[in-house]
Design a protein that fits this description.
Blueprint (H helix, E strand, L loop, with lengths): L8 H12 L6 H11 L5 H8 L3 H15 L9 H8 L1 H17 L5 H21 L5 H10 L3 H8 L1 H8 L10 H9 L3 H11 L7 H5 L11 H16 L13 H9 L3 H15 L8
Length: 284
């Protein structure tokens, strides 16, 4: 650590190597991930493996109900949850379980998980409104867009506890910019590294990396701008990350890129409010 109590570039580089060595997780979770990846697997096989791990089963069920809140009623079975989530979001849910287990003891993690679920829900609402063909990808991008923060919260919890105190004050600045000032990197870069290491689909990489700077997106700009808008709406509705609760200036630019105006927001926001009421704030 430096004399200021903040990590030196050498310290941070050493800590970041932990991202390349995946967290230790149970054999049951490993079997689930391998089965999801297999082209020969069925929903029934995946559900059967999930059911062998009670904690993972609960996480999948709660995530399905929070993220989807379908008009068909409550999701009560693992097989039903697997079918309605889809394979890409399901893999994101399993990855989130692994990292939540590692960081759950640290302050701010419950609020961060709630925010991540909220952004996932809003990404899905926007995607449906825009008739996107990438609904599963949008749902997963929203869920994992801040996954890099789990590393920061776990490794530098004392720093973030101080930042939480400024989260709703006029002295706060966007979390990712503050991270760059302090650490030299931000949670977006760390999130990109995590999803690559877990072999998630390539389509997720750029939107997660650029959700705070979507104008730089070349390959998947619609997905990056949708995540940016969803993140802004979540913050505006009070489900922001604890260290920065304000809507960023990029929000309006992303609305313009997506072609969403005031009337579109009037149409979208009632459904967003309805769907957010089903999102659980407690850490699963």
């Amino acid at each position: 650590m430096s004399s200021s109590g903040l990590p030196s570039p050498f310290d941070l580089s050493k800590q970041m190597r932990k991202l390349d060595a995946l967290p230790v997780f149970s054999a049951s979770i490993r079997d689930v991930l391998n089965t999801i990846d297999s082209s020969q697997s069925s929903f029934e096989q995946i559900a059967s493996l999930i059911q062998k791990d009670p904690a993972l089963s609960l996480h999948v069920l709660r995530s399905a109900n929070s993220l989807l809140s379908t008009f068909e009623g409550k999701v009560t079975g693992i097989l039903h949850a697997v079918r309605i989530l889809g394979l890409v979001p399901l893999r994101g849910v399993v990855v989130s379980r692994i990292l939540l287990d590692k960081a759950r003891r640290h302050p701010g993690v419950s609020e961060l998980w709630y925010h991540s679920q909220a952004v996932s829900v809003i990404c899905t609402v926007i995607g449906r409104y825009m008739n996107s063909r990438k609904l599963e990808e949008l749902q997963t991008i929203g869920l994992l867009h801040d996954i890099g923060k789990f590393f920061f919260y776990d490794e530098y919890s004392e720093y973030y506890e101080q930042e939480f105190q400024l989260g709703d004050s006029g002295r706060a600045e966007p979390d990712w910019l503050r991270e760059r000032d302090v650490f030299g990197i931000d949670h977006c870069l760390l999130g990109d590294r995590v999803v690559r290491n877990f072999r998630l689909p390539r389509i997720l990489f750029e939107p997660i990396l650029l959700h705070h700077d979507p104008s730089k997106s070349v390959e998947f700009p619609e997905l990056a701008h949708t995540c940016s808008v969803a993140d802004g709406i979540a913050r505006a509705f009070g489900s922001g990350v604890p260290e920065y609760v304000f809507v960023e200036p990029e929000f309006t630019g992303s609305l313009d890129v997506l072609g969403l105006g005031t009337n579109d927001l009037r149409n979208l926001l009632p459904e967003v409010l309805h769907r957010l009421s089903a999102v659980e704030i407690l850490l699963p």
